[in-house]
Design goal:
The complex is a heterodimer of chains A (649) and B (213). By secondary structure, chain A is an alpha+beta fold. Chain A contains 22 helices and 11 strands. Among the domains of chain A are: 398 residues, no CATH class; 33 residues, no CATH class. In chain A, 53% of the residues lie in helices and 11% in strands. The longest helix of chain A has 39 residues. By secondary structure, chain B is an alpha/beta fold. Chain B has a single domain, classed as Rossmann fold (3-Layer(aba) Sandwich). Chain B starts with 10 loop residues before the first strand and ends in a 30-residue tail after the last helix. The N terminus and C terminus of chain B are likely disordered. Classes of the chains: A alpha+beta (649), B alpha/beta (213). At the A-B interface, helix 22 of A face helix 1, strand 2 and helix 2 of B.
């Protein structure tokens, strides 16, 4: 409902963005916290309760470059001024990831989105001066460049509200992460990652969880009820690609290399997890989790392929984390096919993979290391054990962490899992179909029609629903809330389940088509919009920070998203090239499978109507003939013989 | 047998052409009645007929040959089409076995709507395309014999057996009519002034046939 509401408002006289896409470009003049005047800097961006972290720019000399983006859902009527300041403020926090202990604060900045929107309109890229935490002595902390773009109907990673999942992380896990560096990514494809996040963290929360919880609960209720987030995901994916052409052009080679790196680092495990999920899709979460670890690496690869196909369905990969679970399962069969598929995009798969990994990392809960630095982090630390359990439930689907996953799985509420499961299953088939179609057709993103999107979206929705439900829960500490949440979740899960046919969110559907066309027809593949891969989580945080999409390839940890996008674009291009513009098929090449199907159905209907007409005419003529034959057969005599009276004496 | 004049005939026999679409019914008709052949492959729409008068002995027989599309579905004209027919050419394309394999269905329709005494000839058309033959002559002949049908292979394209086929049928009909007329003394003439040879004359006349001038 909120979505609908926002959409409705949007159409009003005042342009009211539903989402804001924030791209953390780079920073400069950062203080050095690490050895040799360097720092392992990452940025955390937050709007309201939603929070994302960039990848860690390791050993950056005070000027890390991220080019990662995330999209936040904005409260309705942003421009009206009815929105509380904190919900319309973009908080930028730059931190140094410490190997031990809390991450160190490097600086922070706040951007009043309402003001920005009012003054700057749709998009603005600018440098913001980093300041000290409130109440602390100001010193030179450098500045950060951020691109802020307002839009409507986007969906992105934001959809998955990871923040809810943020849990204090297991200290052990943390350590491990630090040691392994990227390691996080690999394990946490989906479910496992989430699970780990849920695990109680040793992080200290300075602030009282209660506050946060309250806030979260509010937010949660909004989300869960509204379902807004769900729709946005699919759309945003498509939309984003256009926007950031300037960011980074990824070359296949780059991706490949990264991919390799990732592999070395444990990604395999994560990938495995995902795969298993997919395969077992119908099975309970528990089962899935179990399977995860056992699966061989190969499957992981196939899984990636699956993701890819999934992407097709989704049309965009950004959401990978969220969407990946659902989709993966659904698309598994496809994945294999895809792997073998077109050489044109070798990188995409790799990207995807990375994508997953990165996403997983992000997902992984990190303990916020900032020691007593500021209240800013407070929200992050809110995680309480109770919340964790809740989150775990909500997250059940996604659990990526192998380590934690086992325990967590158990924790996950059966109800949630089942609900999610059902939803998944119902949608799976549809997704598969679509994916299959896509495979057959060879069309991918290009074809994504509004309709096509739907199926994909719906899974996303499911997921989101799950996530959304979860996130609120995270916020809500009390067991009492859990029950409430449970109900909420059920609703959310169920709703998605209805899925395609009965879409509760009519508005969303309507809007989607609009967005989709843009993405589909975007001519420039190479310049993926800002949608880049989600960056890895810097560290485990108390409050899980959502991974951001990287725009830049160079960032070691990040940028899979872009790659995927690019690859997708390339694929699209290839597809497009198959048909010469003069070829009548060209027009159809750009249609979504769904659109094509619709077209076929339409044609069929038309034909049947024609046939019916023909039949009617035939019958009419026959009846006339009968009368003629009985009364004046002579006129049926073949014309050549006209004039002769046949048979007549 | 020479051609009689149109007005000078003793009998009018209604003969129908039936068989699958595309077997060449219309061209058989045009070949026989107008000595024409068209390579135009248009499907027949509606119903039409042509006539030709042939002399059988001393009798002038006016053959009224009806042609229609070989559609599978039941049509409103089906009943009217067969009504009064005293002869039928059941045509198949000997280069397309499918058209032969459905002959039985056509026979059934024929006997459902026409009189039991109707003279039927099984015609394997397109004998000029012998290389593409799919229906062995003997097979068709055996089938015809077993079902009491006349049989010929024809080619509307090169006229092979076309005249013979129609005349054979007409002769057979004439023979039957003659026999019948002999049997029923009272039925001198059922005067069917109209061209509808097929109309049943009366209880005594099983077959509509004749117009006696």
């Amino acid at each position: 409902m909120s979505l609908a509401a926002s959409a409705g408002r949007g159409s009003g006289a005042v342009w009211s963005p539903t989402h804001v896409q924030v791209t953390v470009m780079q920073a400069r003049g950062l203080r050095a916290k690490g050895p040799g005047g360097t720092s392992d800097a990452y940025a955390v961006i937050q709007v309201g309760k939603e929070k994302y972290a960039t990848s860690v720019s390791e050993r950056s000399l005070g000027a890390p470059v991220w080019r990662e983006e995330a999209t936040f859902e904005l409260p309705p009527l942003l421009s009206s001024g009815a929105v509380p300041a904190d919900a319309a403020t973009l908080q930028l926090t730059v931190l140094h990831r410490a190997l031990l202990g809390l991450d160190k604060f490097l600086g922070r900045a706040e951007v009043d989105l309402r003001e920005l929107h009012r003054d700057q309109g749709r998009r603005k890229t600018q440098w913001y001066t980093l300041k000290s935490k409130p109440g602390k002595k100001d010193k030179e902390r450098g500045e950060i460049e951020v691109d802020i773009q307002f839009m409507r109907h986007n969906m992105t990673a934001s959809m998955f509200d990871l923040s809810m999942k943020d849990k204090s992380r297991n200290p052990f896990g943390k350590l491990k992460d630090k040691i392994k560096g990227r390691h996080k990514d690999s394990p946490s494809d989906t479910v496992s990652a989430i699970v780990s996040a849920t695990a109680p963290s040793g992080d200290s929360d300075d602030e009282s969880p209660s506050k946060d919880k309250k806030k979260k609960s509010k937010i949660k209720s909004l989300f869960s009820k509204s379902n807004l987030q769900k729709t946005p995901l699919s759309q945003s994916m498509s939309v984003l690609p256009t926007s950031k052409s300037d960011k980074v052009l990824l070359r296949p080679g780059d991706f490949q290399s990264r991919w390799d790196d990732d592999d070395d680092k444990d990604e395999s495990s994560s990938s495995l997890d995902v795969t298993s999920h997919k395969r077992t899709a119908s099975t309970d979460l528990k089962q899935l989790n179990q399977v995860n670890f056992t699966l061989p690496r190969k499957e992981g690869l196939s899984f990636l392929g699956g993701l890819r196909s999934k992407n097709d369905v989704l049309s965009r990969s950004n959401v990978c984390i969220n969407g990946s679970h659902v989709y993966l399962e659904q698309s598994e069969a496809k994945s294999e096919t895809k792997d073998s598929s077109p050489s044109s995009s070798p990188s995409p798969q790799g990207f995807r993979k990375k994508h997953l990994f990165s996403s997983t990392e992000n997902l992984a809960v990190r303990s916020w290391k900032e020691p007593g630095e500021g209240g800013e982090t407070s929200s992050d630390r809110q995680l309480s054990s109770s919340s964790t359990s809740d989150s775990a439930k909500s997250m059940s689907l996604p659990s990526y962490r192998p380590l934690v996953s086992g325990d967590i799985k158990e924790n996950t509420a059966p109800g949630n899992a089942e609900a999610a499961k059902e939803a998944k299953e119902s949608k799976k088939q549809e997704n598969k179909k679509t994916s299959l179609l896509s495979l057959v057709t060879g069309k991918k993103d290009v074809a994504k029609g509004s309709e096509g999107e739907r199926p994909s979206v719906s899974p996303g929705k499911e997921k989101e629903g799950g996530l959304a439900g979860a996130s609120p829960r995270d916020g809500g500490p009390g067991p009492v809330e859990e029950s409430v949440r449970g109900s909420e979740k059920d609703t959310s899960a169920v709703v998605p389940g209805r899925g395609n046919s009965l879409n509760p969110f009519e508005d969303v559907q309507i809007t989607e088509p609009e967005a989709d066309p843009e993405s589909k027809f975007e001519p420039k593949p190479p310049v993926p919009s800002g949608r880049t891969p989600q960056t890895r989580a810097v560290k485990p945080r108390l409050h899980p920070v959502k991974p951001m999409n990287t725009t830049a390839t160079k960032i070691a940890t990040s940028s899979f998203g872009t790659a995927t996008i690019i690859s997708e674009n390339m694929i699209n291009e290839a597809i497009m090239k198959k048909y010469n513009p003069s070829d009548p098929a060209f027009a159809y090449a750009q249609l979504t499978h769904d659109e094509l199907i619709q077209l076929v159905l339409k044609q069929k209907e038309t034909i049947s109507q024609k046939e019916f007409q023909v039949r009617e005419l035939e019958d009419y003529i026959d009846n006339l003939l009968v009368r003629v034959m009985e009364e004046t057969p002579n006129i049926l005599r073949i014309p050549a013989q006209v004039g002769k009276k046949a048979g007549k004496m | 047998m020479g051609n009689g004049t149109e007005e000078d005939y003793n009998f009018v026999f209604k003969v129908v052409l039936i068989g699958e679409s595309g077997v060449g019914k219309t061209n058989l008709l045009s070949r026989f009645t107008r000595n024409e052949f068209s390579h135009d492959s248009r499907t027949t729409i509606g119903v039409e007929f042509s006539t030709r008068t042939v002399m059988l002995g001393t009798a002038a027989i006016k053959a009224q040959i009806w042609d229609t599309a070989g559609l599978e579905r039941y049509r409103a004209i089906t009943s009217a089409y067969y009504r009064g027919a005293v002869g039928a050419l059941l045509v198949f394309d000997l280069t397309k076995h499918q058209t032969y394999s459905v002959v039985e269905r056509w026979l059934k329709e024929l006997y459902d709507h026409a009189e039991a005494t109707i003279v039927v000839m099984l015609v394997g058309n397109k004998s000029d395309l012998s290389r593409a033959r799919e229906v062995p002559t003997e097979e068709a002949r055996m089938f015809a014999e077993n079902n009491g049908l006349l049989f010929l292979e024809t080619s509307a394209l090169d006229s092979t057996n076309v005249e013979l086929a129609f005349e054979t049928v007409l002769k057979e009909i004439f023979a039957k009519v003659s026999k019948q007329r002999q049997n029923s003394a009272r039925t001198n003439a059922i005067s069917l002034g109209s061209a509808q040879a097929g109309q049943e004359a009366g209880p005594g006349e099983k077959r509509a046939c004749c117009i006696s001038l």
